[in-house]
Amino acid sequence: MGHKGRAVLAAAAVITVGLGLSACNDDGDADAAAKESPSASTPAETPASEEPAEESPAAGGDVTAPGTKLKVGDRAVLPFEYTSEKKGTIAVTVTAIEKGAEADMVGAFGAKAKGMTPYYIKMKVENVGGTDLSYASLKLDGDLEGGAGTGVILIGDLPGKCDRENAPADFTAKGASFETCSLSATKTAPVVAASFDEGDAYEDEPVVWAAG
Structure pTM? Predict the structure, then answer.
């Protein structure tokens, strides 16, 4: 599966940027790495929807349809695969998209993060299917106005500001839940939405939560 399903240590701090950062590490940044990609990747814009829906079911009848537009605070029911042995159905409620400070980025990732503004995508994750999803992790992407990506891929978190949590050991039963945070960052326009694009059905038509 994609990068959203990887377990990541909180101490890890890696930035992949398509916005002109140097590919060389500063001597003092032992925990940070950055590389320059030829161009910033821009995910396709999600199709417009007349009205946001809280839980718009797909044809299958029990999950939120690809391309659904939601608002922060809305709940989406989604198919989820963490590994080949950990699959199930989860519900995700984005509770906030908060703007952070550049100084926090630089403190965690080093000089390569100068000019970047962090955004904290906070969410509640519930086990809907009742399968064993213990220790799984979920990452949502931050989107700019119009659905474009930020061009920055982050692996890590900002302790105390945006803590990326894995599911607890008891995330094995229907109704179990935990809270976590996905870190996003931008050097250009602000992050105004969060998106889920895991799996073939959602890759080109993500579920999107808009702020405000």
Answer: 0.73
